[in-house]
Amino acid sequence: MPELVFFSGTMDCGKSTLALQIEHNRSARGLQGMIFTRNDRAGAGKLSSRLGLVTEAVEAAEEFDFYAYLVDHLSRGGRCDYVIADEAQFLAPEQIDQLARVVDDLELDVFAFGITTDFRSKLFPGSQRLVELADRVEVLQVEALCWCGARATHNARTVGGVMVVEGAQVVVGDVDGGDEVGYEVLCRRHHRRRMTAATARAAALSPDVLPVEPSEPPTAGPPVSAPLTARS
């Protein structure tokens, strides 16, 4: 039976790479899929991986109707055996409903890829709806790591390396933000403490945490007189 599958994880865990791998494996067997994305780092109409792989995709803007688009495509004699939707966290809940209808009414497998929570640890509406509707939710097993080496579970937004917790939910950036808006994956402890790799390095260089120079040894006091002995 066709399924709606949601592949989720933090940034840097290989979601887009897996999407490209699924496309490659299925196309190699003669199947034809439709690829959709929104706000990809490579620009409109692209699905890209941080490994450098890129393929063409249909940009699913805010008013885009997945079900209507695919019905029109099939009605015109086009072929579609499966659907890939990357950056699914940016989709509206109504668009997730459309993807579910594609599975149920058009009987096509839909593979959606996205992060679950935003930089404030709040669910994206699209991801929340996917969790509610998906036949399966697969948490990717390629673990992204926090700067401390622990498993990264949270996404942080940074400006100049400093973590911020206010602002619009969707601001496109990358993990190499520099002085611009960027993103970093952190473990829960360091996300709660708002400690990014940059602020951790700054703390390590702070004079307050450097070893204190040993103080001068105390000066020797006056010699202690030898005890007097009784004379006969």
TrEMBL record:
It catalyses: thymidine + ATP = dTMP + ADP + H(+). It comes from the Bacteria. Its EC number is 2.7.1.21. Signal peptide: none annotated. Keywords: ATP-binding, DNA synthesis, Kinase, Nucleotide-binding, Transferase. InterPro entries: P-loop_NTPase, Thymidine_kinase. Substrate binds at residues 170-173, 183. The keyword Transmembrane helix does not apply. Pfam families: TK. One of its GO terms (molecular function) is thymidine kinase activity. One of its GO terms (biological process) is thymidine metabolic process. The active site is at 87 (proton acceptor). Residues 214-225 have a biased composition (Pro residues). Residues 206-232 are annotated as: Disordered. It is an enzyme of class 2 (transferase). GO terms for cellular component: cytosol. PANTHER family: THYMIDINE KINASE, THYMIDINE KINASE, CYTOSOLIC. NCBIfam families: PRK04296.1-2. Belongs to the thymidine kinase family. This is Thymidine kinase.
